[in-house]
C-alpha cells in the first residue's frame, strides 16, 4: 500500500526524494535538528544497518545512537565482538555505562578459558536468547559488528536470527507496538561481497551509509517503511567527544564548472574568406525585405482586388493522371 | 439414376419426417438443450469450476491473476497447473501487491488458498488483501432491496422500447460473483473480514515449522524447501486437488502463493554467495513444485528477489523452470525517477516468458515496453509510449534516454537498439 512519500521534518523544505539539509538559521533550529536525526533513525524500529568503511568509521555513530537509546529509557544490550569492552565503554559517562548490558565476545570468542560466565552458543546463542525475552519495554540490541558475525556464521542463519529478533514486536497476544525492538548493526562494507550486504540490506528497515568529503562526515539514510516508498536523505554531521550528535550543513559547494581561463576563446570568424558580418545598412535592408510567402497587407489587397487585365475569374486547371482529355471529339465521325 | 434414387429416398425421408411432424403438430426443428452455465465457449464437456474459464486459443483452463490487465498480457489468464514467477523490484513494494491480488482473486472466486512465507505470518498477509471494487450502480443495487417488478425510476434512466418494458428483468449478476472472471480491486481498502472467514486457506510460516537449523547434506533441498514441499503435497492429497479423492463432488482450484522464495530467510544462500553449497536447492524445489502442480488443479504464484541472486546463471535456470515470468522494475532510487519520459509511471513491467502449453508457439504480445503505475486505488499496466525519434528536433540528452529505453525493447527489435550510443543514419 503506497501511502505517499514520508513527509520531511517540517523544519526544512523538501519535496521527497533526495535533499540535503539546508540551514534554517537560529539556535532554536540547531537544537531542533540535533535530536531529530537520531529520533528519525531510531523511531522506525527493526533492524538498522550502519554501513561504514575504512575512511568513515561508524562505531562513533553507533555509540551516539546507543547513548540516545540509553538516555531515553529501555534496555540496551551490546554484543561486543570486535573491540574490547574497555575500549567500547570509553567515552560514556557512568550512568550510561550502568545501563548497558555488555556481552563480551572479544576476549574469548570460543570460550577456551571455560569460565562459567560465558554464554553458551557463542554470539548466535546470545542473540537467540534475546529473541525469547519476556520482559516488556523497549529494547535496543547493538551488534558491534555484523561483519564479525558474518565471517563466523552462515549468512542465512544470521538473517533468520535477525529477522526473528525484529519480529518480536508483532507477537500475537502482546500489545507491544511496532518499534519496541531495535537492532543496531555495524557492517563494514568493504569486507564483504555484494551478496551478504544485499541480503542484510533487504532485511533492514533503516540503512545508514557513511561517507563524506573533505573531513566532513555524511550519512545517507534510507528508510524503508513497510508498504511505503523508501525515502532517502543525506545528512552532514559530526560526533562530539561525548557522543552526542552535531548536525551541520554540508561543505561549501564549489562550483565545479570553472571555465579554464588560460586560453581565451578563439574567435572562429577571424580568418574567413567570406564576410559574415552585416553592416547597419545591410541589416536594415534585410529587415525590410518581405519574404515571398509572408502575408502582408499589400498582398491581401492584391488578392482581393482583381487585377487590371483580369475582368473575370480564371480557372486554372491541371489535368490529373486519370483525366482522359482526348483532343479528338468522338462525335466527329457522326454525320449530322 | 443414382442421384434420382437418393433424391427419392431423401424425399421419402422428408415425407416421413413431415408426416411425423404433422402428427405432433410442431415443427421438425427442435432446439438444442440449454448449454451448461459457466462456460462461454468450448464444449459442455469442460469442467466448470468457479473462477476459471477455458482459453480461447487452446482450450486450456485459465484462472485470473487478479489483475485483468495482466491477464490480457498473459494471453487470457494463468493456466491451471503452472507457476507464475514475479521477479521482485528492488525495494519490494509492488511485488507484494501482485501477490495479494492473486490471493484476493482466489477468495472472491471461492478457491482454496495456500500461503507460504518466511517473512510474514500468512494470517497477517490475509488481513492485508485488497477489497474488491464494486461499480457504483451495482453498489446501489446491492444496497437496495431487490425489486421484482420494474420500478418507475428505470424509465428515468433508460428509455426502453414499449415492447420490452413488460419483459421480465434479466437477473443481475453482481460484479463480485465468482462466476465472473477477473475482478478489480481497491488497493486502498482491506478485504472485508467475512470474506476471509468464509474462505478456506492454509498457511505455512517457516519460523514456526522449523525449530532449529539442521545440517543439510549438499545437493539436496534446503530444509525449509523440503518442509514446504511436503506441506503442499499433503494439502493437495488430503483435499483431493489431484483427483485422489473421488468422493469430492465439486472440484476447486488450489491457489498457492509463496513469498520471497530464495531469500536468506528460507535458509537458502543463493542470494548471499556466488558459489553456494546448496546451489541446486532452489532449482530442485521449482522442478518438484512444477511436477506437483501439473498433476493437480492448482496454480502458483512465487515472488523471488532475483536482484539479490549473485549467480546470474541461476536466474536463467529459474526462468526456465517457471512457466510464466514477469519482472518488475521500479524507478525508485534510480536515475529514471527524474527522467521526464517516465514521470507518469512508477516502474516498468517486463513479461519475460510465457509458456507454450500444448502449443508450438506461445501467446506473446507484441507490446514490449510496458509500464505500471500504482494509483491510489488501482494498479494499472499501460503501454509506455516513447516519444517519436525525430533526429532533428530531439536534443542529445533525451536521445541518450531513448537509447537506454530502447535497450528495454524485446529481442525482436534487433541488435542495433541494444547499444548505448544512439546511431544516426
UniProtKB/TrEMBL annotation, chain B:
Keyword Magnesium assigned: no
Species assigned in the record: Propithecus coquereli
Source taxon at top rank: Eukaryota
Keyword Repeat: no
InterPro entries, per database record: Elongator_complex_protein_4, P-loop_NTPase
Cited function: Component of the elongator complex which is required for multiple tRNA modifications, including mcm5U (5-methoxycarbonylmethyl uridine), mcm5s2U (5-methoxycarbonylmethyl-2-thiouridine), and ncm5U (5-carbamoylmethyl uridine). The elongator complex catalyzes the formation of carboxymethyluridine in the wobble base at position 34 in tRNAs.
Entry keyword set: Cytoplasm, Nucleus, tRNA processing
Protein localization: Cytoplasm; Nucleus
Any GO BP annotation: tRNA wobble uridine modification
Pathway(s): tRNA modification; 5-methoxycarbonylmethyl-2-thiouridine-tRNA biosynthesis
Family indicated by similarity: Belongs to the ELP4 family.
Record-given protein name: Elongator complex protein 4
